[in-house]
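Summary of Year 1 activities. Much of the first year was spent building the evaluation harness for sequence design. The harness presents a backbone, in tokenized form, and records the residue chosen at every position. We chose the following record to illustrate the format because it has been used consistently in internal testing since the harness was completed.
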């Protein structure tokens, strides 16, 4: 018997144990500004999935619904080993949902909170896999616009040479490039402030280079233990992204080769045209500049706790999610 969604408010309580569009809700595993994500059982194929339910006020917007349908289909068409597969996207009783692969493991936010700065080889492996996923999306004219540790899932790898397998998630609500800026029609920010590119903040058109900037912020954090810009006030943080030079990585991580500072400075350039041409080009330059000899204070082990293709439960400074 299906769930009664006629009075669904977007709150996570009350849906556990109920069925939605052929999925039995088991537990909540994440939530963000515009969605709640549950672990669920696909009753038709007897498999565990992650199902994201979109906030009802978004579903009532006809423009949002059309974009949601289109972007979900495009995202689902991208077959890439480092992008969380989308199984289905649709609407039931006025509620929009996305069903996707459930990925066991930590997200990068949880890993960094637990381990602190990562060894250089680990950080480079993670960066390369995320970069590959982003470049694949950009080849389909999709811009993620919210690359952050909470959207990077770290699953157990296959062997000692591949100790972790990375998935980039939240591609079900990405944006077509070129015509869209960093703002919604209501003037709300799209993205997470710690990782937001200057052109998103100023409302200029965005393309894949804004994801490259965000990836560079994430990579910086994996090596330094914090994002490049840390400010007490959001306004000061927005200013820093637009006008302040990022502090050299080697000031926080002296065991990293100095050449890495130049690489990160280019990836974090204020003007998109001054950055690298692709995310993989950036990672290749970082690998050449930083080397693989750096160590971290503690070793890194991929955990077995469960996360999902959901917004991280440890979101901080997270702006409203974009319409699809």
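For this record, the design step produced the sequence shown next.
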């Amino acid at each position: 018997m299906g769930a009664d969604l006629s009075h669904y408010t977007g709150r996570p309580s009350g849906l556990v144990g109920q069925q939605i569009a052929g999925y039995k809700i088991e537990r909540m595993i994440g939530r963000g500004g515009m969605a709640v994500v549950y672990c669920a059982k696909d009753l038709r194929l007897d498999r565990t999935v992650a199902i994201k339910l979109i906030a009802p006020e978004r579903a009532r917007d006809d423009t949002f619904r059309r974009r949601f349908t289109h972007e979900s289909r495009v995202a689902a068409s991208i077959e890439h080993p480092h992008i969380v597969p989308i199984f289905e996207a649709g609407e039931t009783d006025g509620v929009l949902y996305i069903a996707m692969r459930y990925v066991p493991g930590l997200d990068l936010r949880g890993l960094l909170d637990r381990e602190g700065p990562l060894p250089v080889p680990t950080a480079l492996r993670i960066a390369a896999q995320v970069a590959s996923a982003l470049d694949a999306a950009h080849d389909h004219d999709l811009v993620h616009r919210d690359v952050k540790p909470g959207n990077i899932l770290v699953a157990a790898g296959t062997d000692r040479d591949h100790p972790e397998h990375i998935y980039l998630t939240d591609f079900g609500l990405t944006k077509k490039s070129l015509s869209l800026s960093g703002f919604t029609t209501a003037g709300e920010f799209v993205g997470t402030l710690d990782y937001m590119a200057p052109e998103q903040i100023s409302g200029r058109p965005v393309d894949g280079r804004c994801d490259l900037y965000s990836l560079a912020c994430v990579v910086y954090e994996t090596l330094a233990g914090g994002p490049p810009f840390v400010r007490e006030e959001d306004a000061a943080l927005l200013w820093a992204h637009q006008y302040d030079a990022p502090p050299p990585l080697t000031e926080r991580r002296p065991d990293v080769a100095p050449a890495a500072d130049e690489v990160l400075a280019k990836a974090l350039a204020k003007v998109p045209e001054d950055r690298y041409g692709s995310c993989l080009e950036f990672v290749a330059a970082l690998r050449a500049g930083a080397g693989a000899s750096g160590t971290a204070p503690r070793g890194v082990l991929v955990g077995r706790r469960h996360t999902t293709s959901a917004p991280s439960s440890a979101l901080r400074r997270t702006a409203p999610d974009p319409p699809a």
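The chain has a mean pLDDT of 82. Quantitative recovery figures across the full test set are reported in Table 2.
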